[in-house]
Amino acid sequence: MLLTKFKEGVLEVLFPKVCTVCGLKLSTNENFVCTVCLKDKFEEAYRGGKQASSDILLPEGISLQHALWNFDKGGHLQELLHQLKYNRLIGVGEDVGRQLGKSLLGNPLFVNGIKNKKALLLPVPLHKKKRRMRGYNQAFHIAKGVAEVTNLHIVRQETVIRTKNTSTQTGFSLEKRRKNISGAFQVQNPEAIEDAVCIVIDDVFTTGATTFELASKLKKAGCKEIMIATVAQA
Length: 234
Ligand SMILES: [Zn+2]
Fold this sequence. Notes:
234 residues; globular; Rossmann fold; two-stranded antiparallel sheet; alpha/beta; five-stranded parallel sheet; 17% strand; binds zinc ion
């Protein structure tokens, strides 16, 4: 016990925990990103209406498309999400997830939309091969942060699965993205989401190809309504 404490103390002096974004030392109540960065380093996405993206038509059944921050190409947010996705910094997901949860609670469309309803968080599933390779699903860790703040439950990971292992969609046209993702998801346990408001959680919202495909499957499986909540808006 004493030795563990001593080791921790030494590690703390040798390798102080620093903020992933600004590199300054973190205080004990901070995890990966410091409070100052969470407040000031990112630009809030527009949230005056039912969608954060101005140029995309939301398909029927999707009542809200909420994003926390605007994607700053090449900037802090891109770097942060990269750390989460490829460098195993899963705690970053929980940090930004908590922030996303707070911003959802500040959106009346969200608060009124889930009132007196069964509402569930559904991280966009990863194909099992990809999950095995990466070791985790980054969307799940974002959802964990959202769950902590909103007190909503996360749908069990086997309820909806990804049956198609798609390659990266970056650089694809919208049509190609849609074709690529078509039929990629399968609801294995419709009872779990029946009549629920499903809040689909992902890291970035770009064209909506992935989340819209998932939403249409959820709707067919009996979901009452779908909301999309992402950390970034591209
Ligand atoms: Zn910082």
